[in-house]
Amino acid sequence: MRVRFAPSPTGQLHVGNARTALFNWLLAHGKEGAFILRIEDTDAERSTLASELSILDDLRWLGLDWDEGPDVEGPHGPYRQSERLHLYASYANELIASEHAYYCFCSPQKLVADRQAAMASGRPPRYDGSCRDLDRDQTQRRMEAGERPVVRFRIPPGLDVTFTDLVRGDVTFNSEVIGDPVLVRSDGRPAYNFAVVVDDALMGITHVIRGEDHISNTPRQVLLYQALGFTPPQFAHLSLVMGPDHTPLSKRHGATSVAEFRERGYLPEALVNYLALLGWSPGGDEELLPVEELSSRFALEDVGHSAGVFDQDKLAWMNRHYMKAATPGRLAAEAVRYFLKAGFITQRTDEAMEYLASLLPMSVGSVDRMEEIPDRVRFIFAFDAAEALARPEVAAVLGEPGARDVIAALAQEIAGPLLDKEAFRAVATRVRERTGHKGKALFHPIRAALTGETAGPELDLAVPAIDRGAALPAAARVVRVMGCQERVRAFAREMGARPT
RNA sequence: GCCGCUAUCGUCUAGGGGUCAGGACACGUGGUUCUCAGCCACGGGACCGGGGUUCGAAUCCCCGUAGCGGUACCA
User: How far apart are alpha carbons A189 and A52 in whole angstroms?
Assistant: First the structure.
């Protein structure tokens, strides 16, 4: 089995295309087939090398490695269509010689006019065949006169073309609705339908798994395989990915490219797991499956037929799951960029990374993506008593019964750094004994004074995290963290300046 | 317009001539907790419409309808 993914390098890798790549990869991986990457860059105006590089990068990030492709090469290369032009030219000549194809001199203007006329009268819009029967001399003369013809494929009339789609079953098109497609453009570059057939045949592709938008191209490709003397591969067409409003997933629905999801802090295994289940079901009740499990269970027969809506909420849920499953060290490596961006860390030193790793378990269960983590622990790095008290919800805590007493007592009881849960508990106990307040009346004011917030991670974790941060040397390159003792004193001072 | 594909909770889906139509996300309620989030429990929620075949249709067939795709010298 040989499958392929053949993107056009005209932008970033869209999640819909990533899913197509993934389904191909899962199939090959589960059946020990080969996964080939081919770059379809015959559209010179829109193709860029930067886009090719970013697509390769995104594929690698997702873990979809390929056996043959533009960077690794292989026995069927080159793997960029722009480097295979001689092959298309040679097969085009062969088709012209066998009269499966012919030169066409019709102007674009005529084609547009014909198409409009056909639509207006309710007929299928297709090429009218004006140049089908030009004789060799005429063709020769016009080419010598400087006209640049296209090469068209001769579609046999009145023929039902049926192919078996591995997802949908038999699909039939009548050749009457298919106009003679352009194989080679007037500038000599091959058109998609031609290049794809030549390449898939020459590269020995056995299963073409692609988006449903190609299903109506398939009959002309099947005919082309036959004319060229190649055996057509098996086809499977995947339904498309939609936005919540059931229109094709696009920018206005939010993130659509793999690069964007990566930037926002989704883990690749979360995106892979989510995408695998969009349009395919492994059958059982479990949905959180490692990639090896996905590939061993994947089968085209179990792929759904209908378009699927991309559900950001479910992706977020899976991402939470994989963030919780990841080790702190891995998470720190993945999330450090967001801390650098927030300015909480200024350099990736070993101490900074270690400190980060210690912070992540308390914050990771409550965010959807890694980019949200710094905000969840912002209280550690950006404490300011005056600012905190200026906020209504924090000021309101002071109005709770006994809150001022608790804070005053806390200011006296904290004698040094609270480096672990036990140290914090001991202080909290002494404050409780001194003030007689417990539960919410005790912890709510403590939270306000120590974090400057009214909500956040549990204090057992948050408080030691603050003082461990405060104990970090300047060389750790973590922004200065104010310790708990200093915090509560500052808070009490500000509180004193605000009478009840 | 023409051709093609598709149709089960809001979403992703399982199932498939007789089922209490199952699960997950989301949502609601309760519990846990100093708080938010999380976590746990419980709950509401679906077979596009109409015909036909059949003892029986969500399931098979036909016709509609709707959505999507194609209808290029884009891919």
Answer: 19
Task: Identify the residue whose Cα has the smallest distance to the C1' of B33.
Answer: A458
Residues 6+ apart with CB under 8 A from A330: none
- Catalytic residue, candidates A31, A110, A251, A341: A251
A119 touches strand B (CB under 7 A): yes
* Residue A329 CA, distance from chain mean position: 23
> Amino acid identity, residue A283?
G
Q: Which pLDDT belongs to residue A120?
A: 79
Active site residue A251: yes
CA–CA dist A415, A488 (Å, integer): 11
Indicate if ipTM > 0.90.
yes
Q: Encode pLDDT of A373-408 as tens digits.
A: 999 999 999 999 999 999 999 999 888 888 999 999
Give the CA distances from residue A18 to residues A10, A15, A227, A260, in Å, rounded to whole numbers and listed in that order. 14, 5, 32, 13
B37 C1' closest Cα residue = A366
For residue A361, which phi and psi values (nearest 5 degrees)?
Answer: -55, -30
Amino acid at A285: D
Shortest CA to C1' contact from A179: nucleotide: B71
Sign of CA dihedral A111, A114, A118, A120: positive
b/e map of A395-405 (b: 16 or more CB within 10 Å)? eebbeeeebbb
- How many Å is the Cα radius of gyration of chain A? 32
Three-state secondary structure call for residue A434? helix
Selection from A186, A230, A174, A176 nearest residue A205 by Cα: A230
Read out DSSP for A154-189?
A: -PPTT-EEEEEETTTEEEEEEGGG----EEE-TTSP
